[in-house]
User: What shape does this take?
Amino acid sequence: MKDQPQVSDKKSAPLMLDIINVKKAFGDLEVLKGIDLQVTRGQIVSIIGSSGSGKSTLLRSINHLETIDSGEIWLDGVRVNQPEMKGMEFERHINSVRQNMGMVFQGFNLFPHLSTLDNIRLAPIKLKGMEKHEATDFCMELLAKVGLQDKADVFPSNLSGGQKQRVAIARALAMQPKVMLFDEATSALDPELVEEVNLVMKQLAREQMTMLIVTHEMSFANEVSDHVLFMDQGVVCEQGPPDQLFSNPKEERTKNFLKKHLQQQ
Amino acid sequence: MNFDFAPVWENMPTLLEGTGYTLFIALFSAVLSLVGGMAVALTTLYGKKIFSYPLRFFIWLFMGTPLLLQLYLLYFGLGQVGILIPALLTGILGLGIHYMAYNADIFRATIISIEKGQTEAARSLGFGRMQTLWFFIVPQAIYRALPQLGNNMILMLKDTSVLSVIGVTELVLNAQFEIANTFRPFEFYISVAVIYYILNLILETSLNRFEKKLESRR
Assistant: This one.
């Protein structure tokens, strides 16, 4: 991706995600110690770092699955966290904001009581008021896109891990989100199933989907990202274009982390 | 010893009528206990404390006292203070509420057992709290509860016999009428036992079949 001309366009593209000085603590443990991050439309940003660095918490905070203690999170000009909103008012606000974000989880979290097709089409029907036949056509296209059009009537328990995650991606895409959040989407997969999920993510990247990816896979982050953040102990330790961060890291902690990870791979 | 089943055959219509009542009571009590049980479970889990605390007390009360005593209280106890409910309705209410307490406990456990990721996935798509419960958590909790609910329904079908003590003309009481006429308790009670056994056999087989059918969805 990074060799293509649109990279420079992306710099001037409008801001899609704006994260300003976000802090979060679990009890005494400070997990996020003031994170800033800007993602422009169509940009693909990867977040790497060891477990406990706060990268998953940051991603979950953007979707408000974790409530941040202070700071601001903006999605396409709309503030996600609204400390002054209470009760039902905030409930309505966050439901509408979340419809613009697709979230993909490490553990897939497909709905086991629904067929693959229903997993995908329930949200657009119930939340966007899409007609059933219209939603069915649209969701069958999405299934085809992730290569699973023949699995429409199958239940999740009969899918492999890689297939489950591809369905989960299609489910998130069905709401036509402005940004996709991937929380270690391939970490729970057997090694031979990782590639089929990565291929789907690469295709989304080609289609200019704005993506924020938390990952343990350095080679994938290197290949697909426009920008990479290295998080350590709740702060962004170092960031930059992937070739710079991976081949010429400046910070000692980044070097140590990469050394450890490249040995493993 | 001389067993004579001829009186049983002659009085089969009375037994079948009693069987009809038994099934009628079981059906309505089952619906009450299942719908009410889910409502109680959801309220005790997610409701405001002014509702959930009394309901938890209610569960504890109905699980901690005998069904027979509850029926006496509902029928004769309330009758004493001028609240007269027909025996059949008292029976359905008493049996339904008694098993509602047990079912509520089962639903409570299976609702809690649904992984947190299910709620997170639903909420991240934009579903609200109530929608998440309705579309995702409650259906899965029901699937998971099926084996235990099935057991309860079998127990309940048998417990309809207790209603004979407040004069509901179900299977056992009808048999007792005919025993009084024919003096053949052994033959009648054996026949009644066979009828209960067949009913539960049918119930259990269809529940098993239903569970098998839904296995892939759990």
Q: What stands out?
A: The two ends of chain B are 54 Å apart (CA to CA). Chain B is about 85% helix and 0% strand.
